[in-house]
Amino acid sequence: MTWDPANYSNIPNVNFKEKDIWHPSLVLETPLKFTVAGGYRQRIQVNANFNVEWVPGEVWESSCRFNMKFWPFDKQTCNIEFIHADFKADKLQTHHLMFDKSNYIPNSE
């Protein structure tokens, strides 16, 4: 779905209720608590250039194992992966998945 806003009263985007438009059922692959993204009264905004903004608003908790062998000179990396709850990876591709990290709080440990 794309459109030229100039042809439609300069409307740059359209908002949908989450229940009225298809969206992926994202699940954190390694959760401490099982949570599916989305929920009651969430909105999905579709822009004229077909960029879609969906802000589910959940808080996900995950953990990683760390190797402290070279502490304090080590570097640890924790990968966070999401999967789709309804489709296998070969049936669905998610592009440009971005997360707002403005509320991210790093753990000092």
From TrEMBL:
Domain of life where this protein originates: Eukaryota
Bilayer-spanning residue ranges: none
Pfam short name (any one): Neur_chan_LBD
InterPro entries recorded: Neur_chan_lig-bd, Neur_chan_lig-bd_sf, Neur_channel
A molecular function GO annotation: transmembrane signaling receptor activity
GO-annotated cellular components: membrane
Residues of the Neurotransmitter-gated ion-channel ligand-binding domain: 1-97
UniProt xrefs under Gene3D superfamilies: Neurotransmitter-gated ion-channel ligand-binding domain (2.70.170.10)
Protein name: Neurotransmitter-gated ion-channel ligand-binding domain-containing protein
Organism field: Dreissena polymorpha
